Amino acid sequence: MEKEEFYRKIKSKRRIVVLVAILSVLVLYIFRTEYSLIRTIGVIGLLGLFHLADFLFELDFEVKHYFFIILIAIISFPLGSLYLLYTNFDKLMHFIEPIMLSSIIIFMVSKLKIEFKWRLLFVFFIVVGLLGMFEIGEYILDTFFGFRLQGVYIYETTGNFYLSQSKIDDTIIDMTLGILGTASYIVSVALLGKERKKLFRK
């Protein structure tokens, strides 16, 4: 019965992933640009990997976790270029996205039979490690494909860009904000007894 319930929920969550994928393709069809293709592949790829992990490892993610990963995908790819117009948008997202990511990771770690304090520490370092991998990914895309992911660029009405914050400063600030976002979530979980009992039953 538990297996049947798991597969039933997987099918429901798969419909969500397919719906978002279809919407992403529609956006690609409307704009039809090279960057739209890359962003569409990014959204579908991230959601596909997330759903595949849910299915293969029987993680049984909740709907809210799918909502979080969809938000992360949309913010990171289709809305990623907004930082060229609003520099504070990028900084805000580097604080908020790790909070959503921490919620997903903490759900996974809650299945491990280790003490509560070590689970929290484990989650913190997993998320920080993922943030570091993300920054490495930005560096690779900038180096080999000419993206403007590292550094803060200001878009001028003339159509030109100029670098207002160096790449190294931008990376360090982004990592710092990500660590602060992760730490704020970990501290809130540690302090909220209700959340502790719900997620970490021994």
Report what the structure shows.
The protein is mostly helical and 202 residues long. It has two domains: 1-78; 83-202, no CATH class. The chain has helices at residues 2-31, 34-56, 63-76, 87-109, 116-145, 167-191, 193-199; strands at residues 152-155, 161-165. The chain has a two-stranded antiparallel sheet with strand order 1-2. Helix 1 runs antiparallel to helix 2, helix 2 packs antiparallel against helix 3 and helix 4 crosses helix 6. The two termini are 24 Å apart. The model has no long low-confidence stretch (mean pLDDT 83).
Strand content: under 5%
Return the string of H and E elements: HHHHHEEHH
Mean pLDDT: 83
End-to-end gap: 24 Å
Tell me the number of strands. Answer: 2
Shape: flat
Total number of helices: 7
**Spatial extent as radius of gyration:** 19 Å
Counting helices, strands and paired strands, the structural category is mainly alpha
The percent range for helix content is over 70%
User: What are the segments in which pLDDT stays under 50 over at least 5 consecutive residues?
Assistant: none
Question: How would you summarize this macromolecular structure in one to three sentences?
Answer:
By secondary structure, this protein is mainly alpha-helical. The chain is built from seven helices and two strands; from the N terminus they run H-H-H-H-H-E-E-H-H. It folds into two domains: 1-78; 83-202, no CATH class.
